Amino acid sequence: MALTAETESRLYRSLRAAAGAAAHLVALGFPTGVAVLARPGSSLFSWHPLLMALAFSFLMTEALLIFSPETSLLRSFSRKVRVRVHWALQLLALLCALLGLGIITYNKHLNGKAHFVTWHGVTGLLTVLYTSAQCAGGVLLLYPKLMKNWTLAKLKLYHATSGLVGYLLGCASLMLGMCSLWFTTSVTSVSWYLAMLCPLLTSLVIMNQVSNAYLYRKRSQH
Predict the structure, then answer these.
(1) I need a labelling partner for 148 at 20 to 30 A (CA). Which of 48, 166, 186, 198 fits?
(2) Can you tell me where the transmembrane regions are (predicted)?
């Protein structure tokens, strides 16, 4: 028996809501697991994985999910409020990432180790630099008159697209970090695969959200 268009739409929204709820749980659960594993304060290095997990798993994920019509925790608030919270979360994510980068750099210096020689190190550095540029570019949305030849709608579209690239870089950096000796000696077997699924799940949810926003804008223009 074929589903009606209304039933299909309702089912699709339900699936998106379920995926979004799972993303919220993973966004909080992953850094919690990293905190248990790293035991922050036990060493200088222990702060690095926690800060990076907070930046790219929790804060940045929540900053993007805040615009989801199905799963935003602030969907009853005005867009102006959601934009401000988005800014606050993104700024906190950037601060955590910069601090995490500074700590691992100083820790390697203390131990006489080479800097940025692994895929995780290079991707992590690129991610932090890209995130810094993305946050700076977000200022243009507050002052769109600075870009006279660009409409506000186009600025929003490019900001969302470039933000998705930055988020995927962050997820890739987390996944590469889970391939490190520190992580693989502590997390093995099925637990390792489950951990790897965490950034993969949130990235799929965020990609779906951004693509749907893009399609909505395209339809509204016709």
Answers:
(1) 166
(2) 17-38, 44-67, 87-106, 118-143, 164-184, 190-210
